[in-house]
Amino acid sequence: MSKILIVEDEKNLSRFVELELRHEGYEAQIAKNGREGLDLALAEDWDAILLDLMLPELNGLEVCRRIRQVKNTPIIMMTARDSVIDRVSGLDHGADDYIVKPFAIEELLARLRALLRRVDLESKQNSAKQTTVTYRDLTIEKENRVVRRGDEIIELTKREYELLLALMENVNVVLARDVLLKKVWGYESQIETNVVDVYIRYLRNKIDRPGEDSYIQTVRGTGYVMRS
After folding, report:
1. How far apart are CA 99 and CA 174, in angstroms?
2. Burial bucket for residue 49 (CB in 10 Å: 0-12, 13-18, 19+)
3. How remote is the C-alpha of 194 from its chain's centroid?
4. Do 143 and 212 fall within a single domain?
5. pTM reported for the whole predicted model
6. Which residue from 89, 70, 75 is spatially nearest to 119, judged by alpha carbons?
7. Domain of residue 177, residue span
8. What do you get for the CA distance between the two ends of the chain, in Å?
9. I need a labelling partner for 136 at 20 to 30 A (CA). Which of 12, 50, 88, 159 fits?
10. Same domain? 153 vs 65
């Protein structure tokens, strides 16, 4: 049963969509504002998100942008605004599809089915050709951008993931802070090298086991390394 999150402040519409989704065999939940929708989107795993553009507290574009920093959950934007710039802006912020209100529920369901089929196909294709990087009990599936510790999936942000990948692809190589900065953040001149230290701390909090040595060792005055 696919899990769908509906982020919509218009009560009658959200309830109608929820009932239709349940009738079609989906599991559905409603968030009535952008803040609640973002919290739910990040806290749980959803097969797709139906996201209104005009929301209280946080608008749909900002919600979409913040979700995309962490997850690749499929997103269909729903909005009463049909200008080209609104459609382009929604897609540029990470939405996968766009539907204009008022819409026929049959069209929304068809778009949702098509999106889920596409994601399922991509998932099967990726699982058939995964490139993995391993270090001790950590494994990275590069095409899926999935990090596992044993059988447990560890949720990482984009920067955390890229930082871990850089270290795991260079086991026993000490990577200086400026090298990690270029690998992960590119040539953004406004970023200071101490941001690497901050993200190493974030990463350790997520991958390390309490009471055990850190996977990532600090080389004082230089940078970081993962040693075999």
Report:
1. 49
2. buried
3. 25
4. yes
5. 0.56
6. 75
7. 130-224
8. 42
9. 159
10. no
